[in-house]
Model the fold of this input.
Amino acid sequence: MSTTFTRTEEPVLLITGASSGIGAATAREASRAGWRVVLAARSMDRLRALQEELGGPERALAVHCDVTEFEQQQEMVVQTLSSFGRLDAAFANAGFGAPRGFMESTVGHWRDMVLTNVLGAALTIRACAPALKDSRGHLLITSSLAGRRVLAGSLYSCTKHAVTAMGEAARLELQGDGVRVTLIEPGKVDTPFFDDRPEDALQDGDIAAAVMYALAQPPHVTVSEILVRPTSQAG
Done:
């Protein structure tokens, strides 16, 4: 499903974790569909390259943002409204994983993961909610198949269970303001998320297509959850 917008109607999609993987793929798909995009991440070199690919600052805004820092998330929204005058959808997509096993990884890596995956998503909701209420917009959050079933020894899975709960909590709070909330729950995806790239996996563009499907629905329709897994993935 696609929509054509006039220049004055072009909606704005903000994406955290936009420098690579699902975030960058979603930015490309949204841009092709007529959205202006806000690209937020810590890697400004990658963001600027993607910004130029998508048509420069009139079409894509690159914003440095560490999602664990609320002041940076607030500034991200300020820059969005200053540059584009509106915010129609926000995709809280920033996150990363860790090896399975409670004796694996490091405590510091765990801390950073929990802060990014859980607190970072919550801060994106807090920073974007006022503008999304004004636009009666759309909040999307990247959870995971791992946020629906527990993986042995996986603290990452625990963070995504928290994000899944967060999505429903946000839906219940924001629905009265006309804001739609969608959880995006990928299974195994071939993205830079993995050190060893998986075989028979989805591509990041497959998840971007799911995001665009949710965004393309009419305002009275909310797709609350989209679980996408490879056909060959058993669990």
In short: Strands lie at 12-16, 36-41, 60-64, 89-92, 138-142, 180-186, 189-190, 202-203, 225-228. Residues 7-228 form a domain with the Rossmann fold fold (CATH 3.40.50.720). The CA atoms of residues 8 and 84 lie 10 Å apart.
